[in-house]
Design brief:
alpha+beta; Rossmann fold; D-amino Acid Aminotransferase, Chain A, domain 1
């Protein structure tokens, strides 16, 4: 059993990890930037160490400072959460060389999957479909045009080291191809210090479906079902749910096929700990592999709600060397869960971030409601990080009940002093197409065009 874990993150995910550790009787060490001195995760941990200035490049992304804090606190392991260094194979390597357990996949597995183009090759080896695309990195705009014309527009330009929608552009013709190619490379270099990009066929109006996987260090790998993450803006997820409405109708057999495909890919990569295999599914029920996220996901709570399995505790136990005590036959899905990401943004001003002081904060409650948040009245949201205030999760016996509880909970959620996405998500919950489960990744874009935008703003 670990005696002490350092949480190399901030915000709601840091609190989520601290809670899991407390229930396992493991002591915790929080790290924080100067801007996060009054953050809730600092108050809840057993110990806290400041690691630098507000900018993440001077704090949460500084491997040397994180390792120094871990050595000072004499921890057994580091949990990276999501974002920041959670998928950085070098960080995992450094932890291992310092005899500190990295709570996540091995650096070897991360290296095998950190390049999206390599992941595509692995998926093909596993017999899993991938979108048509370039054979490797596209080195210049002339090569990009040749590839695009070969596979046919529209195409997606993607950073090989990308994530969170950065380094991704859609091109519908040669002009947007050239512009998107250079923009993606520049953004990828700035975000990931890797300007490499590849090109693949853009699947229009797809569902974005991901499968949660768990694997131990003895080769046992299972999946915990799917999450539908299609309600997104510029590749940033806004609302997620499980099970997917798409699988409740004529495509109900896809769950089994895609679950097996996710496990096959993880097995070939010798993957351990928690991860997510992401796919797109077209309106004909054809699915294609996208990538593997080598960490806990923001939206993991909805999987926990429908399976009853605590994913963060499982991560810790696996990192300690414990075998999975859950087989695929032990995984049962009950009810329906929805998550709304509550962000400090103005959805009617191009989702402009709204950092600042929260004057009043009241979180909803009641049966079927879960709130994962680090916010409180008087808390100041720093301008340096993502704008998430928290996550609102509701659970019901079926999708209709989960939606009704979510609508009620959003109505109770009160945040003043900063702009938030609460009213916008409330409007989405009332949209007829969303309520029928008829949507794709273009849902929000279509919602905010023409006369529908005015109607949504009026409802909000």
């Amino acid at each position: 059993m670990f005696e002490k874990i350092l949480v190399a993150n901030r915000g709601e995910i840091a609190i989520r990890i601290i809670r899991a550790c407390k229930e396992l009787n493991v002591r915790t060490v929080a790290v924080y930037s100067e801007a996060d001195a009054n953050s809730m995760h600092v108050q809840l941990a057993d110990e806290a160490i400041c690691i630098g200035k507000g900018q993440s490049s001077e704090s949460y992304l500084r491997i040397d400072r994180l390792i120094s804090a871990a050595e000072i606190a004499d921890v057994d392991a580091i949990h990276p959460g999501y974002g920041f260094l959670s998928e950085n194979a070098h960080f995992a390597d450094v932890c291992e060389s310092c005899n500190i357990r990295f709570i996540g996949p091995s650096s070897r597995a991360m290296k095998a999957l950190e390049d999206k183009q390599v992941s595509r090759t692995l998926a093909k080896k596993a017999g899993v479909p991938t979108p048509p695309g370039s054979d490797g990195l596209v080195e210049n705009e002339q090569e990009a045009l040749v590839v695009a014309k070969k596979i046919g527009y529209p195409v997606m330009i993607k950073a090989v080291a990308g994530g969170g929608g950065r380094g991704m552009r859609i091109a519908h013709n040669d002009i947007s191809m050239i512009k998107g190619y250079h923009t993606s490379r520049t953004e990828a270099e700035k975000s990931f210090s890797n300007s490499g990009v590849y090109i693949e066929k853009y699947i229009e109006n797809p569902h974005h479906i991901e499968f949660q996987i768990l694997g131990d260090n003895r080769g046992n790998i299972i999946h915990l079902g799917e999450r539908d993450c299609s309600i997104q803006r510029r590749h940033q997820k806004v609302i997620e749910e499980t099970p997917s409405p798409m699988f409740e109708g004529k495509f109900k057999d896809l769950r089994k096929k895609m679950g097996k495909a996710a496990v096959r890919i993880a097995e070939l990569a010798n993957y351990s700990n928690a991860g997510t295999v992401e796919f797109v599914v077209d309106d004909q029920g054809n699915f294609y592999f996208l990538e593997v996220n080598k960490r806990i996901q923001v939206e993991h709570p909805i999987t926990e709600e429908v399976t009853g399995i605590d994913l963060v505790k499982q991560q810790i136990l696996i990192a300690m060397g414990e075998p999975l005590r859950i087989s695929q036959n032990d995984v049962h899905f009950r009810g329906h869960a929805i998550e709304c990401r509550i962000n400090a943004e103005d959805p009617f001003d191009d989702f402009r971030p709204s950092p600042g002081r929260i004057e009043m904060y009241y979180a909803p409650g009641g049966r079927g409601v879960r709130v994962d948040s680090h916010a409180y009245a008087g808390y100041t949201i720093p301008p340096y990080y993502d704008s998430m205030i928290g996550k609102l999760i509701t659970y019901g016996k079926d999708r209709r009940e989960a939606m009704e509880i979510m609508s009620r909970a959003l109505g109770e959620y009160m945040i003043t002093g900063v702009k938030s996405t609460i009213a916008f998500e409330q409007a989405i919950l009332q949209d007829p197409n969303f309520r029928r489960g008829v949507y794709s990744t273009n849902f929000i874009e279509e919602l905010l065009t023409g006369g529908r935008r005015e109607l949504i703003e009026e409802k909000a």
